[in-house]
Design goal:
- The protein is an all-alpha fold and 192 residues long.
- The protein has one domain: Serine Threonine Protein Phosphatase 5, Tetratricopeptide repeat (Alpha Horseshoe), CATH 1.25.40.
- Helices cover 72% and strands 0% of the residues.
- The two termini are 20 Å apart.
Length: 192
C-alpha cells in the first residue's frame, strides 16, 4: 500500500530541513571551521544527490498525469546534477568554479517546473497554493545562489541560501492534498 502523497512531501521536507540546518551551521561557524571535519563538506551535497535519487520512485509511483511525471523527473535530475557537481567540487575532481552555477540553474529549473506543473490557481486548494509558493521560493533561491556565486563569503547570501532550504521544508510540511487555503476551497477541488 502506498502512503498518501502528502506523506511523501513530508519525507522530502525532512531532507530539506536537514540541508537547511547544515547550511545554517556552516554559515554561523564559517566554511573553514565547518570543513575541519572533512566528512562535513560532503554532507549537504551528498544528501541533495540522494534526494534526487529518491525522487525517481516518486516520479514512477506518485504521478497522476504526464506533466506531474515530467516535473518530478526534472526535480530528480536537477537535484542530482547540483549534488553531483557540488560533490565533485568538494572532492577536487572539478576545479572550475563555474560548476557552482549548477545550483542556481537547478533551482531555476525546479522553480519553473513547480510553476508550470501546477495547473490550478493560487487559491484552488492548499496544495495548489503550496506549489505556487514553492515555485517562487525556488526562483528566489536561484537569484540568491547566483549572488552567492558572485560573493561566496557573504554571510547574507549564505544565510539566505540556508533559509531558502528551510522555507522549502516548511512549505512541504504544510502540504495536504485537499484542504482549504485561508478558509477558501474551490468547489472543484473535491472533498476533504
Amino acid at each position: 500500500m502506498e502512503p498518501p502523497a502528502e506523506v511523501v512531501h513530508w519525507m522530502f521536507g525532512v531532507g530539506f530541513v536537514f540541508l537547511g540546518l547544515c547550511m545554517v551551521a556552516e554559515t554561523i561557524v564559517g566554511r573553514e571551521v565547518w570543513c575541519r571535519r572533512s566528512w562535513r563538506a560532503y554532507l549537504w551535497p551528498g544528501v541533495a544527490f540522494l534526494m534526487g535519487v529518491a525522487m525517481w520512485p516518486v516520479m514512477v509511483f506518485y504521478t497522476s498525469s504526464a506533466i506531474h511525471m515530467l516535473a518530478h523527473g526534472v526535480w530528480a535530475q536537477a537535484m542530482m546534477v547540483a549534488g553531483a557537481a557540488q560533490l565533485g567540487l568538494v572532492r577536487g575532481k572539478l576545479r572550475n568554479p563555474v560548476w557552482e552555477l549548477t545550483l542556481p540553474l537547478a533551482l531555476a529549473v525546479s522553480g519553473a517546473a513547480f510553476l508550470i506543473h501546477e495547473q490550478n490557481p493560487w487559491f484552488f486548494s492548499r496544495a495548489a497554493f503550496l506549489h505556487h509558493a514553492l515555485g517562487w521560493t525556488a526562483a528566489a533561491g536561484a537569484v540568491i545562489t547566483f549572488a552567492r556565486f558572485i560573493r561566496p563569503r557573504s554571510p547574507s547570501f549564505n544565510g539566505g541560501f540556508a533559509l531558502m532550504f528551510i522555507a522549502v521544508a516548511v512549505l512541504l510540511f504544510c502540504d495536504r492534498n485537499v484542504a482549504p487555503i485561508f478558509g477558501h476551497l474551490s468547489p472543484l477541488a473535491g472533498g476533504r
